[in-house]
Every structure is written in C-alpha cells, then in structure tokens.
Amino acid sequence: MAYHSGYGVHANLLTLQGSVQRSLPLRSPQEPPGSKHRARAAPDPPPLFDDTSGGYSSQPGGYPVPGADVAFNVNHLFGDPMANVAMAYGSSIASHGKDMVHKELHRFVSVNKLKYFFAVDTAYVAKKLGLLVFPYTHQNWEVQYSRDVPLPPRQDLNAPDLYIPTMAFITYVLLAGMALGIQKRFSPEVLGLCASTALVWIVLEVLALLLGVYLATVRSDLSTFHLLAYSGYKYVGMILSVLTGLLFGSDGYYVALAWTSSALMYFIVRSLRTAALGPDSMGDPAPRQRLQLYLTLGAAAFQPLIIYWLTFHLVR
User: Fold this and answer.
1) Which of 86, 135, 148, 267 could make a disulfide contact with 181, Cβ separation 3.0–4.6 Å?
2) Quick check: pTM over 0.70?
C-alpha cells in the first residue's frame, strides 16, 4: 500500500511539471536570456464594475477625475439620503394619520357641519396666510352672516377654517423629519413622538378652552371646530420659525419665533373677542365680561409657549 501511494504521488508531480513547462513561452536557442523580445502575455480582462468606494471614479493611474470630489460634495449636500428618508417617513405618518382622522370623524361628526370648515379656495388660503403673518392692518374682524347663517370661509376672510390647520400640521411633520435628518438624529420613533406630541398639545388646548368657555358661561356659537381651527393656526408660525432656523441658524429662529408669536397672539385676541365672544356677550355683567376677556388673553398668551416647546429642538 505504501509503494502504490508513493508511486501515485510521483506520477502526479511529473504530470504537473509537464503542464507547467507547456504553459511557459518558447524561446529560440539564439535568443539570449535577457532579450526584450518576450512573448506578449494576454491582457487582464477588464473589471465588471468600476471601483466607486471612494465616492468618485478613478483614472487609469489611480488618480481621481478632476472636479469629481466637488461634484460629490454638492450632491451629498443637496441630496442627503437621511433627510430624504426622514421626509418620506414623515409623509407616510401624516397620510396615515389623516386617513385615521377622516375615518373617526365620519363615525362621530356630522359631515355636513365639517364641510363648512373646508369650504375654501386658493384666494382665501393666500389671504388668510397673509393675515396670520401680518394681522395688524386688518380692520373688520366681524364674521359675516347671510340669513342668520355664517358665510363659508371662501366668502368671508374672518371665518375660521380647518383646511389651513390640517395642511399646516402635515407640513410641520414633514419639516420636522427633514430637520431631524439633516442633523443626523432621525428615527421613526423620534418623528412619531414629535407628531403625537403636537396632536396631544392641541387636544389639551381645545379641552382647556372648552372648559374655560363653560366656566365663563360664554353665550355664543363657539363650537369645538371653531376652537380647533383657532388653535391649529399656530402650525403656520411653527413652520416659518423652523424653516427660518434651518436657513439662518438660531438667531433667525428666535426672530421668526418672536414675530409669528406676536402676530398669532394679536390674531387670536381680535378673532375670539370680536368674532366668537363679542356679539352675544355685550349685554353680560361686567364681571362676566372681564372673565371672558381673561379667557381670551390666556388663550393668546399660551400660543408662544406651545410654539417654542414644539420647535426649539428642531433647530440647532
């Protein structure tokens, strides 16, 4: 058995040596060993894929293509994948929440009453956004009526609506996701917490206003939808503050926060006092009127605190 094993190994070695000799290039006897006329080796096959692990394609010498690093930095700046993912996830959360809200509203709320607050057009939205940002020159704050029925928002600029608060909330969630992605702090849990916190705050605010209206015995047509609309207008100021902070840093954020907060406070006071609380409460006793005034001022003063609490962590 040992003899046959050794003989088999010897035969394999002889076969390997013969194959190696046949693979070597042939050389004529007259050709000196150091001659330059060597057999030309077959070129290596080109790679299937270019090596782009460094962020750019390379030249044959291993040097980067001129200007490739600049293009890579620009694309990285304007196409941050984390920011794109954050915005996409924020859009899905906003769409899912919108569908859930619509489903629940159809169960517990009259759709005909709700349609009034969404009866808007492009002209109304543009004018109302301008009124929210700069309300100081507006003169007439009375809600217009036609046969004891309030006109829809597209016919009356002073009428509250729910279209702007709804769209502003969705935009706020998208902007929050983008801000978190730019700061490399995005995660589904953080964005979900941000959106749910904004919803919880506005629900608590509306409940507090309803309780205050009940305790102050306000006699008006003020409903939950009216309070939800006035409370939801703060999202416009939140969007402007965060967007200014992302563009100009913390200094721009605080300037925009101060402006939007003061404008919203003025808007809330004039709207609630004149349009909602004013007409039906002129004949009330003086103590009750003072209580209603304090309720209006308290609701207005609470707006800057909520705006700051929901936006300061998005700007760094």
Assistant:
1) 86
2) no
